[in-house]
TrEMBL record:
<dbReference type="GO" id="GO:0005506">
    <property type="term" value="F:iron ion binding"/>
</dbReference>
<keyword id="KW-0349">Heme</keyword>
<comment type="similarity">
    <text>Belongs to the cytochrome P450 family.</text>
</comment>
<dbReference type="InterPro" id="IPR001128">
    <property type="entry name" value="Cyt_P450"/>
</dbReference>
<dbReference type="InterPro" id="IPR017972">
    <property type="entry name" value="Cyt_P450_CS"/>
</dbReference>
<comment type="pathway">
    <text>Secondary metabolite biosynthesis.</text>
</comment>
<keyword id="KW-1133">Transmembrane helix</keyword>
<dbReference type="GO" id="GO:0016705">
    <property type="term" value="F:oxidoreductase activity, acting on paired donors, with incorporation or reduction of molecular oxygen"/>
</dbReference>
<dbReference type="GO" id="GO:0016020">
    <property type="term" value="C:membrane"/>
</dbReference>
<dbReference type="InterPro" id="IPR050364">
    <property type="entry name" value="Cytochrome_P450_fung"/>
</dbReference>
<dbReference type="GO" id="GO:0004497">
    <property type="term" value="F:monooxygenase activity"/>
</dbReference>
<dbReference type="InterPro" id="IPR036396">
    <property type="entry name" value="Cyt_P450_sf"/>
</dbReference>
<dbReference type="GO" id="GO:0020037">
    <property type="term" value="F:heme binding"/>
</dbReference>
<keyword id="KW-0472">Membrane</keyword>
<keyword id="KW-0560">Oxidoreductase</keyword>
<dbReference type="Pfam" id="PF00067">
    <property type="entry name" value="p450"/>
</dbReference>
<dbReference type="InterPro" id="IPR002401">
    <property type="entry name" value="Cyt_P450_E_grp-I"/>
</dbReference>
């Protein structure tokens, strides 16, 4: 039966009522369409998109694709995730104007069903949206990662950096594994109080890295259709594999906390992040699962990023011998050859600091960066980024900005040093993110990369094998981009026995 037939039998008053309702509904739909069209037209321009699926994702290396789009559409452009607009900030100055200036309005994260809600139980701090849970997690992390506390980890970093050099001295071909071992050993000690020797093949390290691999795959753009169409999560069995991954992670992280809790009761564990969480859990307002995930996420993020960054340092040193030589000349002058560089030397080792800063820019550890969500309308020039829009400061594209970083593909640490020989205060690169979502472990990570860079370049001369040239663009296509295996020749700068004696005596 048609609507018209139904209406024919209605009394006049009811007919008027339906006419008004239909009329108002039509006006409302037209008005909503006008508002949507106006908001869409005010967005920055971007590539064509499908009305349902949104902007097609390239099969690989999305950050490099975004850099190319910036050349066509400008420093800010719009792509679409289904029907949701996503604005990409691809140049340095605009990142300051949008990502930094509006950091309060961009403190939220977009909804990620696959990686965030299902795989992580909405407890992984990287992906948790703004709100009460986020405040509790950040507060818990801040207590042990703020700069003055981060400085207390320097003896642990120094010990493991020394082991990193010893590992390279004994097995130089495995330098990438040694870098990852440093990162895992340091973070395990800080997070769980583990002081026994750590190896990259240890069961717990292998297990955590498997979790990180799954997370990285889930975070790739377009990896899961449910992130574009969240209704799919209600289809029976659709997310069963991701749910299994979550249970596996929860069992792993919970098991680590159970071990620490038992050792704490026996007085057999040194103070660490896990003991802090357990001793202050009620005050911090954390559930058992939240505390377990917070500690597990700290290990995962800290070890993965640091291992990648140290691989980039080795790549840059081997490919740019002039930059390496400048660092070594300063190390020889400040430190000499009879002792190891230490954190106390940092203020005099500007060449080391500049080398590290340039390695962060040259090959960003997180080339994509991570998406934010606008909680208010953001006005930029003639454009409006509406509340609810996903916003990305793309690290790779920003690092290629030729106006701020001339010859961006060239590794040039001198761009970070001013005419007085000091590190420039006016030049920044957002390697650790933006605003209120900046990585809370930045002070710790920077110290790790600094001391390892200083020790390795003090101990060795790194060079390419002419028969095995390094492909400086060969990186894994993951949110945290590790270099693919490459070959570096490590030549001790000090006689091997003397070098080992200095290392053993520290």
């Amino acid at each position: 039966m048609s609507i018209a037939t139904d209406l024919d039998g209605l009394p006049y008053a009811a007919l008027v009522k339906w006419t008004v309702i239909i009329g108002l509904g039509t006006v409302l739909c037209i008005k909503l369409h006008q508002i949507y069209s106006q908001r869409q037209s005010s967005l920055p321009p971007g590539p064509p998109s499908h009305w349902l699926w949104g902007t097609p994702w390239p099969k690989s290396y999305v950050p490099r694709y975004y850099d190319k789009l910036a050349e066509t559409y400008g420093p800010v452009f719009t792509v679409w995730n289904g029907g949701t607009p996503a604005v990409v900030v691809a140049r340095h100055q605009v990142a300051q104007e949008i990502m930094t200036k509006h950091s309060i309005d961009l403190a939220d994260r977009p909804r990620t069903v696959a990686a965030g809600e299902v795989m992580s139980g909405d407890m992984r701090i990287l992906l948790v949206g703004a709100g009460e849970r986020m405040r509790r997690l950040r507060k818990s992390l801040h207590a042990l990662l703020q700069p003055n506390v981060a400085a207390t980890y320097e003896p642990i970093q120094m010990k493991n950096a020394r082991n990193y050099v010893l590992d390279i001295l004994e097995r130089p071909d495995d330098f990438l594994i040694h870098a990852k071992r440093y990162a895992a050993a340091f973070i395990l000690e800080v997070t769980y109080g583990k002081t026994t020797p750590t190896y990259y093949t240890d069961k717990e390290v292998v297990h955590i890295n498997a979790c990180l691999e799954r997370l990285g795959a889930a975070l790739r753009p377009g990896a899961h259709l449910v992130d574009t169409f969240p209704i799919l999560r209600h289809f029976p069995g659709y997310l069963s594999t991701l749910k299994q991954h979550h249970e596996d992670e929860l069992k792993l992280f919970g098991g680590q906390m159970t071990h620490v809790r038992s050792a704490l009761a026996k007085g057999e564990v040194r103070p660490c992040f896990a003991t802090y969480l357990l001793e202050n859990q009620e005050k911090l307002g954390l559930s058992d699962n939240e505390a377990a995930y917070l500690a597990g996420s700290m290990f995962g993020a800290g070890s993965d990023t640091t291992g990648s960054a140290l691989g980039v340092v080795s790549m840059a040193a081997a490919c740019y011998p002039e930059a390496q030589a400048r660092v070594q000349a300063q190390l020889d002058k400040v430190v000499g050859c009879d002792r190891l560089p230490t954190f106390e030397d940092e203020s005099q080792l500007t060449e080391v600091t500049a080398f590290v800063l340039e390695s962060f820019r040259w090959r960003p550890v997180t080339p994509m960066g991570f998406w934010h969500k606008a909680t208010k309308d953001i006005v930029w020039k003639d454009h409006v980024i509406p509340a609810g829009t996903h916003v990305l400061g793309c690290h790779w594209a920003i690092s290629r900005d030729p106006e701020v970083f001339p010859e961006p593909d060239t590794f040039n640490p001198q761009r970070w040093i001013d005419d007085r020989g000091h590190i420039r205060e006016d030049l920044k690169f957002p390697n650790f993110g933006f605003g209120r979502r900046i990585c809370p472990g930045q002070p710790v990570a920077e110290r790790s990369v600094f001391i390892n860079t200083a020790l390795v370049l003090w101990a060795f001369e790194l060079s390419q094998d002419p028969t095995k040239p390094i492909d400086t663009y060969a990186f894994r296509d993951r949110p945290i981009a590790h270099p693919e295996p490459f070959h570096v020749t490590y030549t001790p700068r000090i006689e091997k026995l003397q070098l080992k004696k200095i290392l053993d005596s520290h």
